[in-house]
TrEMBL record:
<feature type="domain" description="AB hydrolase-1">
    <location>
        <begin position="3"/>
        <end position="217"/>
    </location>
</feature>
<dbReference type="GO" id="GO:0003824">
    <property type="term" value="F:catalytic activity"/>
</dbReference>
<dbReference type="InterPro" id="IPR029058">
    <property type="entry name" value="AB_hydrolase_fold"/>
</dbReference>
<protein>
    <submittedName>
        <fullName>Pimeloyl-ACP methyl ester carboxylesterase</fullName>
    </submittedName>
</protein>
<dbReference type="Pfam" id="PF12697">
    <property type="entry name" value="Abhydrolase_6"/>
</dbReference>
<dbReference type="InterPro" id="IPR000073">
    <property type="entry name" value="AB_hydrolase_1"/>
</dbReference>
Length: 227
C-alpha cells in the first residue's frame, strides 16, 4: 500500500528515512512528503502551500494511508477533509487535528518571519526522555525553522465526510488511556466525531521515527494490512 508520511514542525522529509527502509522491506511504498518551507529553503511558504503538497501526494498515490506526525496530524486530517474518497485511512502520530478557524501551529515565537526550534527546554520530560544528548544535538542542528505563513496559517475544514475516514491515533509520549480521557473531556472535538477511531501505544518519546523507527514502521504496516 502507498503510505504517505508527513513530518511535524522543523522536520524535512529525511526524518522518515529509517521508517521508509523498514516499510519497503515489508512490501509497502512509503512516500515522505516534502513540505514547502521545511527543507527547500523557502521562508515564504504558507499553510496552503503545505496542504497543496500533501494533496498532490494523495492524488499521485493509490488510495493511500496518510500518516501525520505531531502538528502535521492536522495536515493529514486536512487531506481527509479534501480527499475523503481518495484516502484509505488516517494515522495520527503524537498529535491530534486542529479545529476549523484555528491557527495551524502558533506555538512558539516567530523571529524574522520564521518559527525556529525553541530548544529542548520546551520538551523536557516524556517528549524527549528517549533522546540522548547526541540525538538532541543532531535534531537541533538539522531543525528547519517553520515559516510564519505555515505556523500561523488558519485551518479550514469543510467536508463532513472526513469523519467517515478511519483514524488510528498512535500514542507515544502519552498513553491511549490518556488520549481517551482527553476525548471524553472534549479536548479532541474533531476525533470525537470520527466514526472509527482506534488507538495504538508505542513506548517512545515524541519522535518515534528517530528512536523507534522499526516499531513505528511495524505499526503503520499492520494498519495498512488491516491486521
Amino acid at each position: 500500500m502507498d503510505i504517505l508520511l508527513i513530518g511535524g514542525l522543523w522536520l524535512d522529509a529525511s526524518a522518515w528515512d529509517a521508517v521508509v527502509s523498514d516499510l519497503e522491506a515489508r512490501g509497502h511504498r512509503p512516500v515522505p512528503v516534502a513540505l514547502p518551507g521545511q527543507g527547500d529553503g523557502s521562508a515564504s511558504a504558507t499553510l496552503d502551500d503545505q496542504v497543496a503538497a500533501v494533496l498532490a501526494a494523495v492524488d499521485a498515490a493509490d488510495k493511500p494511508l496518510v500518516a501525520g506526525h505531531s502538528a502535521a496530524c492536522t495536515l493529514a486530517w486536512l487531506a481527509a477533509d479534501a480527499r475523503a474518497d481518495a484516502v484509505s485511512e488516517i494515522v495520527l502520530i503524537g498529535g491530534m487535528p486542529g479545529n476549523d478557524g484555528e491557527p495551524y501551529a502558533d506555538f512558539f515565537e516567530v523571529e524574522d518571519g520564521v518559527m525556529p526550534f525553541p530548544g529542548w527546554g520546551e520538551f523536557d520530560g516524556p517528549d524527549s526522555a528517549d533522546l540522548d544528548e547526541r540525538a538532541k544535538a543532531s535534531f537541533a542542528a538539522h531543525a528547519v525553522p517553520v515559516p510564519e505563513g505555515v505556523s500561523r496559517g488558519v485551518v479550514r475544514l469543510a467536508d463532513e465526510r472526513r469523519f467517515d475516514v478511519p483514524v488510528t491515533l498512535v500514542c507515544p509520549e502519552f498513553t491511549s488511556a490518556q488520549a481517551k480521557e482527553w476525548l471524553a473531556a472534549g479536548q479532541m472535538p474533531e476525533l470525537a466525531r470520527a466514526r472509527r477511531l482506534d488507538y495504538v501505544d508505542i513506548d517512545s518519546g515524541h519522535w518515534p521515527m528517530f528512536t523507534k523507527p522499526a516499531e513505528l514502521a511495524g505499526i503503520l504496516a499492520r494498519i495498512a494490512d488491516g491486521v
